[in-house]
Amino acid sequence: MHELPVDAYTSQEWFNLEQEHIFSKTWQFAGLVEDVANAGDYISVQAGLNNIFIVKGKDNRLRAFHNMCRHRGTQLLRAVGKGKKAITCPYHDWTYNLEGKLVSIPKKEEEFPDLCNKELHDCGLNLHEASVDIFKGMLFVHPEKDAPNIMEFFGEVEPYLGPHIPEELIEYQEKKDGAFYTKEINANWKIIVENYIDQYHLAHLHEDTLNMYDHAKAEFGWAGPHYYFFEPLVPEYLADVKNASPYPLMDKMPEDKMGAYVPWLFPNIGITESESAWNTFHAIPLAPDRTLVVIRSKTMNVSEWEYTKQYTKSMSSKVWQNIGNKGKYEGDASDPMASGNFMEEDVYACEQQQKSLSSPLFSVGAQAKNGEFAVRKFQSVVKEWVEKYRDND
Fold this sequence. Notes:
Blueprint: H1 7-10, H2 12-23, E1 28-32, E2 42-47, E3 50-56, E4 62-66, E5 80-81, E6 87-88, E7 95-96, E8 102-104, H3 108-111, E9 129-135, E10 138-142, H4 150-154, E11 170-172, E12 181-185, H5 189-196, E13 219-223, E14 226-232, H6 235-239, H7 241-244, E15 259-261, E16 264-265, E17 269-273, E18 278-287, E19 290-299, H8 304-315, H9 318-323, H10 342-356, H11 373-392
Antiparallel strand pairs: 1-10, 2-3, 2-5, 3-4, 4-9, 6-7, 7-8, 9-10, 11-19, 12-19, 13-14, 14-15, 16-17, 17-18, 18-19
């Protein structure tokens, strides 16, 4: 009933194999297009064994490079930054332009007389190039310079995504400091993914927190290595959605298309697209039993007054009085199962599953034919990638 051994969720060996053979060989989510809006803006991301940064050049082109100086391998740039004129290594001040060309070495003739008699950028010490591309308003990087076309990788799942246009939306910040949601979860990244694509648990674990969606009418399946999912709104919520929605509704979403689109792009990026929001769900492996989840949310580009009016209408809607939004259990709201927060419920379930893996009695007793088919399929894709590249090496 399980395609992967327990070691795949607990051992450093498996973690290392995945970093080398999956995360270093697939397109990795880096951020949103607006993160690098102007020349000199940059962001960096860990892509398996590689730290890679994206920078917008003076010609407004996006380029991706491995984030290491060609002198001694020191990291060049930190996580994010704006308006860089050049890229200078903090260790010995070797400097590169925004196109990745080496342009300056302090004391070149004195310290490196035999380095190169040509111009510096012809000495073969320019930054190692990576690939960057855009998919649905998201920036992706690939460690290889000549990576497979991004549409060849994501193209099969695109027809199943929601009608949202992320580039026309604005990022919604819950915190005044502008930070977005981050959560370190004590579970293997694959458990996070399996929970995300598990349709079976929605009507059970989230019976009172995601009851605005009609789980019985969910449509889901596999497209290439990616998972797609859609479920409509329950009739009661749909009938009053213009009032009940907590955020302004997507203006280009037909009523018969309203619902939750929740695809998973292999290996570790989910998109949750609803009637009023669009989110990225990035599961970043930290260790065999630790995963960092980063969620970024976008909503309609309307005035603050429109948000206030919509929230006020939602608070007074009879829909929420009828279907409610409460936790799985009653009790202190600090208990994740009594919190009324579906994310807290999921985190709790994932961490409990991770703990169970250490028991000699652990096994998967049965698997739902439809509701959990995606879990087994995902495991088989992971296994295929690891074994394919490991065997080739």
